[in-house]
Structure formats: structure tokens, C-alpha cells
Amino acid sequence: MATQVTATENAQRNSSFLQFAIALQTLTLFLQAVSAGLLLTSSYGETLHSVGARVTYGASMLYVLAALLAWKPGGGSPRPVWHASGFLLLASAQVVLGIAHVPSVHLPLGVLMFGLSVLALARR
Fold first, then answer.
1. C-alpha–C-alpha distance, residues 73 and 27, integer Å
2. CA nearest neighbour of 16 among 83, 66, 61
3. Which of 67, 76, 104, 111 is the most buried (most CB within 10 A)?
4. Cα–Cα distance list, 35 to 58, 103, 112 (Å)
């Protein structure tokens, strides 16, 4: 019985970590939109956007880790792992497009990512 309680508590903890990771990713994506505006209007915007890109990419990796922890030990659905992996692929595309200076795809993809992240957060 003690093992069952521990397993349930573990699953809840991993689910909370997953929710935190999605919230962090959503916040960093929003801050990237703000820094993109600053990129157009101020001298320090480029630095903020560059640092924010690294933080956002890290948040996407944390989302993958949280999804794996919520799935594997607890025996939950693998669906969050697929969602998190998709976000990491989109974040990778964003990095490539940003470095290549392709704003015609970079900006809409960023908006899409923010919308999908908000949706993922609302579903948790």
C-alpha cells in the first residue's frame, strides 16, 4: 500500500513538473515576442532577443525532460512526449531561421509556437 501511495505522489509530482515546464516555455515565448519588438526599436533589443532565444531553447528541452519523466516512470500517455519533441523541433527551426535572418518565416512560426504553447498549457 505504501508503494502505491508513493507511485501516485510521484505521478502527481511529475505532472506538476510538466505543467511548470509548459508554463515556463509559454512565458519565454511571450518574452521573445517582447524582445523582438525591442529588436526593432532599441539598441539592446538584439542582445535581449539573442539571450532569450537560448533561454527559450532551454525551456523547450526542459519540456521534453518533464514529458519523459511524466510518461516513463508513471506509465502515463506518451502524447506529451510527442508534443514536447515537436516543440523542440520548432525551436530548432526558429534558431536556424533567426540566424539566417528569414523574418518572413521566423515571425509567423514564433506566433504559432506561442499559440500552441498556450494551448498545451490550457490542456494541462
1. 27
2. 66
3. 67
4. 17, 14, 17
CB 81 within 8 A of CB 107: no
Q: Kindly report the length of the chain.
A: 124
- Which is nearest to 15 in space by CA: 70, 87, 73, 57? 70
3-state secondary structure at position 124: coil
Given a contact cutoff of 8 angstroms between Cβ atoms, the answer to whether 52 and 14 are in contact is: no
Cell of 19: 505543467
Residue 1, helix vs strand vs coil: coil
Helix (H) or strand (E) holding 36: helix 2-41
CB 118 within 8 A of CB 27: no
d(CA 79, CA 39): 35
Give just the sign of the alpha carbon dihedral 47, 52, 54, 55.
positive
